[in-house]
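User: Can you help me understand a structure? I only have the sequence.
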Amino acid sequence: ERFQDTFGWTTYEFIAKTDTNKEAGKLGMKNFKENIALVMLFCPEINSIELNDNGKIFSIEHINKIDDIKNESEKFHKFVFKVNDNGEISKKIFLSYKINEYNEQLTKKFEKDRYLRICCALELDDNNNILNKSSIPCLFCSFPLVGSEKHQFPFFINSPDFEPDSERTSLLLDGKEINENTGKISEPGINKMILLRITEIYKDFLDYICKSDIKKRYFLIKGINSLPKINFFDIKWYEKIFISSMRDIALEYPIVWNGKEHKKLTDVFIPVINYYDEEVKRKKVYNYISELNNKRVPSFEESKIFEKIIWKNDSRIKFKDLE
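Assistant: Let's start by predicting it. Here is the structure, written out as tokens:
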């Protein structure tokens, strides 16, 4: 329920006396500053927040909200937040995609109409470059699953329907999808169902981005280039079903910048140049490989990046060295 009149600020005060308290407080404030914009994006009821750290004021507020958007039927929306970190003004920009669709399996499990709710987001800079935020969680269940940082994805994912472990540090993915006792979808089954829906959202993201001028698209393979080492994990299902599908989708879209335009990964050769310590040597080898292959290579900077992050042992991806 939404009220016409607000009730003012909700205030929390914490008194830290011991060194341990103070260190925990510092870590908490760091985590707060890193994640609060995403929490506000995923919980649009929160309009603004202020943090008072012994007189040092950190505040953040929505510049635009879903209520301000004229065409809500569009799949993608950009949201902007104004950040004031003790007088230093900046902004955060997110490209967001949200679904809220009736789900038969959740309805059967909870014995009432239930909708699958997912919101995915990418952070962009002022120049429309994708920003990499690998130090913070990609997984949110309204609030971040702190401790799940090793489980990376191409974008941030929030779903109030996720079933995390009791410590909220990872998703439950091991176990059967159907509970044998109830005949209904299990907690791991719910998480796998959400991840399968994520593959469709990933395709929509790539389709949208590749029709726009958004750059640094190599971040769109983050999390699908390797298998995470996490708890409560079904590695066979994750690799065969989820990762395989995500990689197939990634190869369908032009995410490689060659200096003039974006190309598909399958349409370029990845120069093997990071073996060389000196930048001058790398550039020389890159130029030579580029000429030998009719310049069907990524730009020099993206060649260095893709060589490091792209998955190996895939015949569809071609590497080139001097041999």
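Now, to help you interpret it: The longest helix spans residues 19-42. Helices lie at 19-42, 104-110, 187-209, 235-250, 279-292, 300-309. Let me know which part you'd like to focus on.
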